[in-house]
Amino acid sequence: METSHDPVRTFKVRRRVTTGQAEALQRLLPEYGLDRTQPFEAATVYGRTAPLVLEIGSGMGEATAAMASADPARDVLAVEVHTPGLGNLLRLLEDGGLTNVRVLEADAREVLRDVLPEGSLDEVRVFFPDPWPKARHLKRRLLTAEFADLVATRLRRDGLLHVATDWASYAAQAEAVLAHHRAYEVVSRERGARPVTRFEQRGWDAGRQSHDLVVRRR
Ligand SMILES: C[S@@+](CC[C@H](N)C(=O)[O-])C[C@H]1O[C@@H](n2cnc3c(N)ncnc32)[C@H](O)[C@@H]1O
């Protein structure tokens, strides 16, 4: 899924789904899935007016479902390119009876640019983005200055961008991009109430530490 604006892919293409995930995708996407070619109107999509959280790269969705369940007053848009993960998330949404989450299978940069209106987001979460640790792959990292600029236009004033990574060099990149960005001010370097994610646990198992950075749009 490459774009004319930014041809560098930030993810590996892995689409092999289990039978259960395929069944969930077929049955539940009509209920929870959005069509990126349709105009996005939050009140229509969620059937109410509530603060909107964008989660980029929801992975297998356990943390997404847990956070949405714990925070029913806010709506969540989970954007992911990993089809099996979306299938898993859909099952979790159904099992939890969650009504405040919708999913979109797309490159989040395109969703930010083409789908979401300016100032529409209360919070953007980027939890454990693909680390791309090799020098020749650094250009694939999601969190660039261009990405930070784009997110700033979609966040409302005082909206938050929360980034977490278990790669020290990516944490340093997040600091470099966000801590001195004129659109943001640093709020916290704590994890807050977010649950442990699947990739975070993998990082811990491998001996890495989590680094959080929360910035507020001025
Ligand atoms: C390392 S995983 C982390 C998943 C989850 N947040 C966690 O912590 O367990 C990163 C996820 O981001 C997704 N991803 C990478 N680039 C993306 C993009 N441009 N748009 C949407 N999702 C993306 C990948 O498909 C992958 O599932």
In brief, what are we looking at here?
With 218 residues, the protein is an alpha/beta fold. Helices cover 37% and strands 21% of the residues.
Question: Which terms summarize this structure?
Answer:
Rossmann fold, 218 residues, 37% helix, alpha/beta, seven-stranded mixed sheet, binds S-adenosylmethionine, single chain, globular, 8 helices
Strand content: 15-25%
What is the CATH third-level topology name? Rossmann fold
Cα shape = globular
- Structural class category: alpha/beta
Termini gap: 32 Å
Give the number of helices.
Answer: 8
What is the name of the CATH superfamily?
Vaccinia Virus protein VP39
Rounded Rg: 16 Å
User: Mind describing the biggest β-sheet?
Assistant: 7 strands, mixed
Written overview of the protein:
The protein has a single domain (19-217), classed as Rossmann fold (3-Layer(aba) Sandwich). It has helices at 19-32, 42-46, 62-70, 83-96, 108-115, 145-154, 168-179, 198-205; strands at 52-56, 75-80, 101-105, 121-127, 155-165, 184-188, 211-217. The protein is an alpha/beta fold and 218 residues long. Helix 3 runs parallel beside helix 4. Strand 4, helix 6 and strand 5 form a beta-alpha-beta unit. The protein is 37% helix and 21% strand. It is globular. The model has no long low-confidence stretch (mean pLDDT 95). It has a 7-stranded mixed sheet, sandwiched between helices. It is built from 8 helices and 7 strands, in the order ααβαβαβαβαβαβαβ. The two termini are 32 Å apart. The chain binds S-adenosylmethionine. S-adenosylmethionine is lined by residues 10-11, 56-59, 79-82, 85, 107-109, 127-130, 142, 197-200.
